[in-house]
Amino acid sequence: RELGFPTANLAIAWDSEDLSEEQRAVRSFAETHSTGIYCAFGCLEEAVGERKVYKVAMSMGWNPTFTDVKAKTIEPWLLHTFDRDFYGCHLRLLVLAYVRPELKFESLEQLKKEIAADGEFCAAALESELKSFEDDSFLRPWDVSGPSPVPSSSPARQGRPRDYSHPGKIESPT
Question: Tens of pLDDT along 144-161?
Answer without folding.
Answer: 554 433 333 323 223 333
